[in-house]
Design brief:
By secondary structure, the protein is an alpha+beta fold. Helix content is 59%, strand content 17%. The protein has a five-stranded antiparallel β-sheet with strand order 4-3-2-1-5, with helices on one face. α4 runs parallel beside α6 and α4 packs antiparallel against α8.
Length: 191
C-alpha cells in the first residue's frame, strides 16, 4: 500500500503524506484491485509471466498446492480474457502461450540441468514470483486506483483523480501529481 501511494504521488514525500490521509484501513482491497485495473498494460505483462507458471505448476508441480494453484490459474485466465476483450490486447494470450511453450521445452531438459532446476523452484514458489511481480507493478504504476475525472468548478477546471469525498469537499490528486481540495459547493460538474 505504501509503495503504491508513493508511485501515484510521483515519489514526492509531501504529496504521498497527504494522499495517505485520504485512505482508511478498509481501502486496501480497493487500492490493490483498482491499481491492477488502472494499470492494465502492466497487469497484462505480469500475467504473461505468472499465468503460464501457474498453469505449469498445476500440471507438473507439487500436488499439495494444486487446489490453490488451480484457483489462481482460473482467476488469471478470467483476468486475461477480460483484458484481451476490453482493450484488444491480443499479445497477452500470444505472449502467455509463448512463455508456456518455453516452460514446456525447459521441462523436457535433463533433470540435472540448472535451467530445469530453476523452473522447478519457480513453479514451487509461484506465489513469491507473483508477489514480486505485484510489488513491481505497484512501484512502476503511476495511475491511481480511481478513475480520471475532469471537474468543472466556479474557479476553473481541475483534472485529476478524486481520492475521497468528504462532507463539503473533494480530495483530488491532479494530473501534475499535486494534492488539492475542491469545495463541494464550487463543483459545477464532474465527468
Amino acid at each position: 500500500m505504501t509503495l503504491r501511494i508513493f508511485a501515484v504521488s510521483g515519489y514526492d514525500w509531501s504529496t504521498a503524506f497527504v494522499v495517505s490521509t485520504t485512505l482508511g484501513l478498509n481501502d486496501s482491497f480497493a487500492l490493490v484491485f483498482g491499481s491492477l485495473i488502472a494499470e492494465h498494460t502492466l497487469t497484462a505483462v505480469l500475467l504473461i509471466g505468472v499465468l503460464p507458471l501457474l498453469i505449469a505448476g498445476y500440471l507438473w508441480g507439487p500436488r499439495e498446492h494444486r487446489t490453490v494453484v488451480l484457483l489462481l490459474s482460473v482467476l488469471g485466465v478470467v483476468v486475461s480474457v477480460a483484458l484481451t476483450s476490453s482493450f484488444g490486447i491480443w499479445w497477452l494470450p500470444a505472449g502467455a502461450a509463448a512463455v508456456f511453450a518455453v516452460i514446456a521445452v525447459i521441462r523436457r531438459l535433463s533433470p540435472q540441468r540448472q535451467l530445469r532446476h530453476a523452473l522447478a523452484v519457480a513453479m514451487a514458489r509461484v506465489g513469491w514470483v507473483a508477489g514480486v511481480g505485484l510489488l513491481l507493478l505497484a512501484a512502476l504504476g503511476q495511475t491511481p486506483w480511481v478513475p480520471h475525472e475532469v471537474i468543472e468548478t466556479t474557479n476553473g477546471t481541475v483534472s485529476g483523480y478524486v481520492l475521497s469525498i468528504e462532507p463539503g469537499f473533494l480530495n483530488v490528486l491532479t494530473d501534475e501529481r499535486e494534492f488539492t481540495i475542491v469545495i463541494s459547493g464550487d463543483v459545477l460538474s464532474r465527468g
